[in-house]
Amino acid sequence: MLKLDEKKIRKGRPIGLPYQGSKKKISKKIIEIIKQNFGTDKPIYDIFGGGGAITAECILNGLEVHYNDLDKDITNAFERVISQDRKWIKTLIVSREEFFEIKDKENKTTDEFLKLLVNSFGNNKRGYLYSEEISDLKYNLAKEIIENHDVFNGYKQTETYKKAVERPKKPDQIGRLQQFERLQQLQQFRQIEKPNYMKVTNKSYQDFSKVSNAILYLDPPYEQTDQGSYINSFDSQEFYNWAFEMDKTNIVIISSHSISDERFEAVYSFDKAHSKFRSGTRNDKCEKLFMVKNS
After folding, report:
1. Disulfide-capable partner of 221 in 24, 113, 160, 231 (CB 3.0 to 4.6 Å)?
2. How far apart are CA 49 and CA 57, in angstroms?
3. Helix, strand, coil content of the chain in percent (nearest 5)
4. Contact present, 256 and 225 (Cβ < 8 Å)
5. Which H/E stretch holds residue 38?
């Protein structure tokens, strides 16, 4: 089993894009587990990077990281957020009408992708965050708040907010914009501490087969689900065979709630952290870290 001294975990909130399947809630623990058990001298490959929570935590801990995801939209979005300012963040809230106009576009810009992400139910980029009956009310309230604040901290003290906190009037988009604001601290870190803080790619996991002497953090699609075409097309056994071979020259850590391949064993369990399928539905099994037995 891997050890974790929780007193050494970085202070402050975890950061990353609001993204389905994100490990943001446990990202600080995951990186501290890696540091305490395997040191800080090896590069970390976040091969199924998603919304970048693990990559962001690596950067904040001064670790060299390679951020990869097949979906170029999400890696572009991550880089876009950390390169912009607070004023730009405010442009991402859109009305219900504008949301569906963007959704219907065949070719979307990175900003449009982010608008769908911020304003959708469960961050699924398909349905607007609010029902038609209350969407205008919540949109107008969110706009009023962001137009009168340079930063989002402290907005709950405004009279505008106090008059509308009762459900269903609370504007949930604001919390998502706050996540983006926290993510932008990586830009300052890049300029001052780590000018070459991360490498970004959009490759298949097999393309990393020649990597050695590194830590591979792998967060693949879950086994045995029917939660979407991407997961249905993912060959878990082929992936486990690849991960087993990669463990011969690397430290391989897999995030999942269960692994059927008996060559792997759970080495840490996040008993209070429950995963979500890519559809946004809750999975009652807790998250765990797996490694090759006796590796």
Report:
1. 231
2. 12
3. 40, 15, 40
4. no
5. helix 27-38
- CA dist 175 and 179 (Å) reads 7
Question: Encoding tokens for residue 37?
Answer: 């058990």
DSSP per-residue string spanning 184-229:
THHHHHHHHT-TT-EEEE---GGGGTT--SSEEEE-PPPSS--S-H
**29 has a pLDDT exceeding 60:** yes
Contact 186, 60 (CB under 8 A): yes
| pTM confidence score | 0.86
Cis check: omega of the bond before 168, within 30 degrees of 0: yes
CB count within 10 Å of CB 70 equals 15
The confidence score (pLDDT) of residue 278 equals 44
Instruction: Map out the domains of the chain as residue ranges.
Output: 16-72+194-292, 85-183
d(CA 219, CA 47): 8
CB 276 within 8 A of CB 26: no
For 220-249, what is the mean pLDDT?
Answer: 80
For residues 98 and 136, give the distance between their C-alpha atoms in angstroms, rounded to a whole number.
12
Q: Residues 72, 93: contact at Cβ < 8 Å? A: no
Name the fold adopted by 16-72+194-292. Rossmann fold (3.40.50)
Residue 289 phi/psi, 5-degree rounding, is -110, 135
pLDDT band at 161 (very low <50, low <70, confident <90, very high): low
